[in-house]
Automatic annotation (TrEMBL):
<dbReference type="InterPro" id="IPR002586">
    <property type="entry name" value="CobQ/CobB/MinD/ParA_Nub-bd_dom"/>
</dbReference>
<comment type="similarity">
    <text>Belongs to the ParA family. MinD subfamily.</text>
</comment>
<feature type="domain" description="CobQ/CobB/MinD/ParA nucleotide binding">
    <location>
        <begin position="101"/>
        <end position="319"/>
    </location>
</feature>
<keyword id="KW-0067">ATP-binding</keyword>
<dbReference type="InterPro" id="IPR050625">
    <property type="entry name" value="ParA/MinD_ATPase"/>
</dbReference>
<dbReference type="GO" id="GO:0016887">
    <property type="term" value="F:ATP hydrolysis activity"/>
</dbReference>
<protein>
    <submittedName>
        <fullName>Plastid division site determinant MinD</fullName>
    </submittedName>
</protein>
<dbReference type="GO" id="GO:0005524">
    <property type="term" value="F:ATP binding"/>
</dbReference>
<dbReference type="InterPro" id="IPR027417">
    <property type="entry name" value="P-loop_NTPase"/>
</dbReference>
<dbReference type="InterPro" id="IPR010223">
    <property type="entry name" value="MinD"/>
</dbReference>
<dbReference type="Pfam" id="PF01656">
    <property type="entry name" value="CbiA"/>
</dbReference>
<keyword id="KW-0547">Nucleotide-binding</keyword>
Length: 368
């Protein structure tokens, strides 16, 4: 296991996925996340320089020796990490709309619902129409994270039973009106025997035929496990986001879910590594992002560091990405949304910090 003092983090909505992303630690080895596939684009350098934040303090002036594409030419390049923002443009939507994406993991408690809520809100802030479907029937929580629990009067079951229209079951967020929520059922209700993959596919098709226009993204929050609820949630999806944490139990479940998704015909699968702690990685108490990517063999959509603000935002029903000033986890989620729009990914690369020169006379002001 490689010791890591650096973990990928985002730099805000509109941030280029080709930019170096760094949350600094004090270790001599680490990870740097570099977007793959769009380095040729012209990047506008952030006028404010490095964006401040808990893990970004103290980076100015520090030189790093990068092991990646530069080292293939036979030399070790010293680079100074800089935040690069494409603040002058919006992301270009790739693929046929609507993009139906399922967020899954297999293991519970890794952050599927949090990822769904924040990604959906980020996409809405980028002026895309988004519908988030909470497919966890008995234990729905997506409405709580969005602060919409008191506005759920109708659900998809009432739509299927002919008791209300689809637009009545859709809950429009007041903060961003191009974001809507659809719950499958009310809490403490069991899954109806007649509800399955065909019923969810019918709902997705109905969203495509709405008079006001089809959404750009349909995000499906998948329940934990690989039982009937999981099969139902992945049936209409064309893409998948696999959320995992860097622990062996989560990785085993993620590997199993990857095989099931591929068997169902979903080939576009990207991975999100959540709750990463650089201090534990440096102490070799947690697997690094590079280790996780090598084990699962999936494209990396984003890395979300451990952040106490996630729990605070969840209890308040206020998505983390709306917090001002933004947190490291919120910025990472914003960049994930940018990559999702453009079907881009990240790459984990080992780096080595340039050694400091030692002085023979430390009492004379030299570094040691």
């Amino acid at each position: 296991m490689a010791a890591s003092g650096i973990v990928g983090a985002g730099f805000g909505a509109g941030a280029s996925s080709a930019g170096v992303q760094i949350s600094c630690g004090s270790g001599s080895r680490g990870l740097v996340m570099i977007g793959s596939g769009r380095e040729e684009r012209q990047l506008a350098q952030n006028r404010a320089g490095l964006i401040g934040g808990g893990g970004l303090q103290g980076l100015k002036g520090r030189q790093l020796v990068l092991r990646g594409r530069e080292s293939e030419h036979g030399r070790r390049c010293r680079v100074v990490p800089q935040a690069l923002l494409q603040w002058n443009r919006r992301p270009e939507l790739v693929g046929e709309i609507p993009r139906v994406v399922v967020i899954t993991s297999g293991k519970g408690g890794v952050g599927k619902t949090t990822t769904t809520a924040n990604l959906g809100m980020c996409l809405a802030r980028l002026n895309f129409k988004v519908v988030a479907i909470d497919a966890d029937v008995g234990l729905r929580n997506l409405d709580l994270l969005l602060g919409l629990e008191n506005r759920v009067n109708y659900t998809a079951m009432e739509v299927l039973n002919g008791e209300c229209r689809l637009d009545q079951a859709l809950i429009r967020d007041k903060r961003w009106t191009n974001f809507e929520l659809l719950c499958i059922n009310k809490p403490r209700y069991k899954m109806p025997l007649g509800f399955g993959g065909k019923a969810l596919t019918w709902l997705v098709d109905a969203l495509k035929k709405r008079p006001e226009g089809q959404p750009h993204f349909i995000l499906i929050d998948c329940p934990a496990g690989i039982d009937a609820g999981f099969i139902t949630a992945i049936t209409p999806a064309k893409e998948a986001i696999l959320v995992t944490t860097p622990d062996i139990t989560s990785l085993r479940d993620a590997d199993r879910v990857t095989g099931l998704l591929e068997c169902d015909g979903i080939k576009d699968i990207k991975m999100v590594v959540n709750r990463v702690r650089s201090d534990m990685i440096k102490g070799e108490d947690m697997m690094s992002v590079l280790d996780v990517q090598e084990m699962l063999g999936l494209p990396l959509l984003g890395v979300v560091p451990e952040d106490s603000e996630v729990i605070k935002s969840t209890n308040r029903g206020y998505p983390l990405v709306l917090k001002n000033p933004p947190t490291l986890a919120g910025l990472a989620l914003e960049q994930m949304a940018w990559r999702l729009v453009e079907k881009d990914s990240m790459k984990a690369i080992l780096i080595e910090e340039a050694p400091q020169k030692r002085s023979l006379f430390p009492f004379m002001g030299g570094k040691n």
